[in-house]
Amino acid sequence: MFKIALVVFRECLEISMVLGIICAATKTIQNSVIYITAGIMSGIIAAAVLAFFITRLTFSFSGFGEEFFDVCIILVTVIVIGGTAIWVKNYASSIHRKIDDLSNKIEHGVMPKIILISVIATTIFREVTEIILFTQGLASAYDFSLTDYILGFGGGIIMGVAVSVGVYYGLNKIALKKLFSVSFKLLVLVAASLASEAAGILTSIGFLGIGNDPLWDSSWLVSDLSVLGRILKILVGYNAKPNAMQIVFYVGTAVLIFTCAKLGERKRNVKIAS
Amino acid sequence: MNYSLILVPITRRDVSCIFNLAKHLAYIIFILFVNLSQVVALDDVYEVEIRLENHIFTPSEIYVPNNTKIKLVIYNADPTIEEFDSSDLKRERILRSKSKTNILLAPLKVGRYDFIGEFYQDTAKGTVIVE
């Protein structure tokens, strides 16, 4: 039972963090809870569907089917999280200028709601597939009773939710103005980490022919397998032996999102000024 | 395709920008797909057979030449599934039970690259040693 709880919690850690940040940054959207819940449910359903098929179908694509699929999911998540980050930045600057504040209600349009659902759905999808596969792996070895499963899952999810709530309230303690810029930076870090993970896969299969060799080895400082290493991996995408492509993707994604956000601000100013 | 467009739509708050996004995404995925099928020219691939039984990889030390494409042919003889996980090789793969999985690796530099079976980390471990 504890094995299951531990597995669920570990995989939940990443979702919890992202969910906590998103909830804090989007709490002013009306009925945001509905969209968040919709995102969670679609993510879980999609993951269940995938897990059902993964043990039956074989993707091929010259033997890289799984990697191709992984990379696609990761890139979609990067784009969606980047979009959320850009939206958060825009929203932050409009509050800062108190421009849309006609009746204390801010018109968001349909974009953030769709972004909200997608970002949560994609993050949940990735992690829930891992959880399901991991649990399947454990199940085929150990004889777990139904209570073990229920308690294990329940325990793991509760701990995960605790992390989310912790992040949410932690962020809320920060004054509103700072909240958005902090959330923005955290989301950029998440997106950049995911992008570097995709780069790792692409170089490993030889799709990107250059930048394959590890640039440095910082295992003496923090090892990939240590607890600190895993936490850093979730928070900033830490890798003890990153290769050049991963650095490029990491920095490139961060720069791209910053640029789009800045451009968005400028467009808003132009629109408002005219 | 005008890629500066990718910077503009995200700032607009109407549904057509979703379609723009989807269009760009579909394009990127298509490019990936087309190129991926050309990645593996199966000449000069060094094959290694690994057997996973009782949650132990045999052989657990795999010697391969450097700057050569490598194919790990892993047969999972256990009734349980396992996940081949290597942060050094930056690769993760589900190894279905009682079946063979091929993992193709791009040429590697000299060094040691550890891997584990994520579900049974205590016993399922190995290293790819490139010389």
Rounded mean pLDDT of chain B is: 80
Computed over alpha carbons, the radius of gyration of chain B is 20 Å
Instruction: Tell me the number of helical segments of chain A per DSSP (H or I, 4 or more residues long).
Output: 8
Low-confidence stretches of chain A: 100-106
What overall geometry of chain B do the principal axes of the alpha carbons give? globular
Q: Tell me about the biggest sheet of chain B?
A: 5 strands, mixed
User: Which shape of chain A, going by the Cα principal axes?
Assistant: globular
Termini separation of chain B comes to 44 Å
Of all chain pairs, the largest interface belongs to: A-B, 55 and 48 residues
Instruction: Identify the quaternary structure here.
Output: heterodimer
Let me know the average pLDDT of chain A: 79
Q: Provide a count of the helices of chain B.
A: 1
Portion in helices of chain A? over 70%
Structural class of chain A: mainly alpha
Tell me what portion of residues of chain A adopts beta-strand conformation: under 5%
Largest sheet of chain A: none
Q: Measured on Cα atoms, how large is the radius of gyration of chain A?
A: 20 Å
Strand content of chain B: 35-45%
Widest beta sheet: strand line-up of chain B: 3-9-8-5-6
Indicate the low-confidence ranges of chain B by residue numbers.
Answer: 1-11
Give the helix proportion of chain B (percent range). 10-25%
